[in-house]
Amino acid sequence: MSSQVRSADPYRDLDVIDSRAPRFNQVVVGVGALISIVTGWWLILFALALQLAIGLRFGRRYCPPCRAYFALIQPWLGEGPIEDSRPPRFANQIGVTVLSGATVAYAVGVAPLGMLLGGLVAALALLAATTGFCVGCELYRVGARLRGVGTREFDRIDLGDVGVHARPAGELVVSFGHPLCTDCQKLEAEFQASGRPFVSVDVRASRHLARKYGITVVPAAFSVTPDGRVTARLAG
Question: Which end of the chain is less crowded, N or C, counting CB atoms within 10 A of the terminal residue's CB?
Answer without folding.
Answer: N
